[in-house]
Amino acid sequence: MTESKRTNGEGLPASSRSSHPLRGDYSHIRPDYTIDQDFLSYTDAEHDRWRRLYGRQIALMPRYAAPEFVESIMSLDVASGIPDFERINALLRDKTGFQIVAVPGLVPDDVFFDHLANRRFPVSRWIREESELDYLVEPDIFHDFFGHVPLLALPVFADYMVEYGKAGPGAAAANAVPLLSRLYWYTIEFGLIHSQGGLRAYGAGLLSSAGEIGYAVDSTEPNRIAFDLERVLATDYRIDDYQETYFVIDSFEQLFRETRKPFAPLYARLVGRRPHPPSATLPGDVVIQRGDHDCGLQRVGRVAAD
Ligand code: HBI
Ligand code: FE
């Protein structure tokens, strides 16, 4: 463990952190919260920071990332500096029709859903500071691009993102946005998949994190449970530490299929009920690995004292 604290910093949704002001510049946003990427205004120091972040992370990918991700990130050719969204959009257009749009940072839930439903993924324009290489409280371009964009080139995953966005208004009408956000969290941000070579990460919060990706795939501490839609919608998540539970899919096709079911009956059952704690394993679970629960405050305390 190289980090002094194992704070989770990757890809936290707006709904979970209203307590601090957003750092992006929202003064020039369009009505859909997009801005120009203004590619030419990135500094050499910022491109250099991207290269170092990229180099550290790409070295972990063959061991820990889903092979579909590895293949796609290589084809995007983004090792040498911050990517130009125009060039990337030309590549994505041919593969899945997805487009990326620059935003100052987190956008409101309804705006976010609308972008996804229309095959657009919002990518934060700014890159983290030198002092934040290991820990971030809001998604920056490294998390948003490195973590999220490669799988947008995979048709079944792109379709899943669109369906997720389309589910937004229904969730809002049912007061169930927090439940739908759990699905995003446990799949798009922190999902694991059974691949040819074993368990692999496909969630962006893992793919862009130097510390959590190995923990999620290899550690005996967290629970790993077979993906179940209702179980995920009913389960709280942690935003301040590595996850205590990861949900594992067998394939992206399974994920897509399982989330095509109507959500309204699930919302009707779950809204207003107390969620399962992030550390729980439950009677109906298909447990792939029961964590030894050596995590949380106790562990952080021990690391800090090391
Ligand atoms: N905005 N830019 C950005 N990126 C996100 O991942 C994001 C967001 N707004 C809301 C949000 N995520 C989540 O609350 C979604 O689950 C709705
Ligand atoms: Fe994210």
Describe this structure in words.
By secondary structure, this protein is of the alpha/beta class. It has a single domain (14-305), classed as Orthogonal Bundle (Phenylalanine Hydroxylase). 42% of the residues lie in helices and 10% in strands. It contains 15 helices and 7 strands. The strands form 2 sheets. A 5-stranded mixed sheet has the order 4-3-6-5-7. Strands 1-2 form a two-stranded parallel ribbon. Helix 5 packs across helix 7 (155-166). The longest helix is centred in the first third of the chain and has 15 residues, at 44-58. It is globular. The termini are close together. The site of fe (iii) ion has 8 residues, from helix 6 and helix 10.
In short:
This protein has helices spanning about 45-60, 60-65, 65-75, 85-95, 110-115, 140-150, 155-165, 170-175, 175-190, 205, 210-220, 230-235, 250-260, 265-270, 295-305, and strands at about 100-105, 120-125, 190-195, 200, 225, 245-250, 285-290. It is an alpha/beta fold. The chain starts with about 45 loop residues before the first helix and ends with a helix.
SSE blueprint and pairings:
Elements (H helix, E strand, L loop, with lengths): L43 H15 L2 H4 L2 H10 L8 H11 L3 E5 L5 H9 L2 E5 L16 H8 L6 H12 L1 H6 L3 H13 L2 E4 L2 E4 L2 H4 L4 H7 L4 E4 L2 H5 L11 E5 L2 H7 L5 H7 L16 E3 L7 H9 L1
Parallel strand pairs: 1-2, 3-6, 5-6
Antiparallel strand pairs: 3-4, 5-7
Helix pairs in contact: 5-7, 7-13
User: How many domains make up the 3D coordinates?
Assistant: 1
CATH fold type:
Phenylalanine Hydroxylase
Structural category is alpha/beta
**Mean pLDDT level:** 91
Bound molecules: 7,8-dihydrobiopterin, fe (iii) ion
Query: What portion of residues is helical?
Result: 40-55%
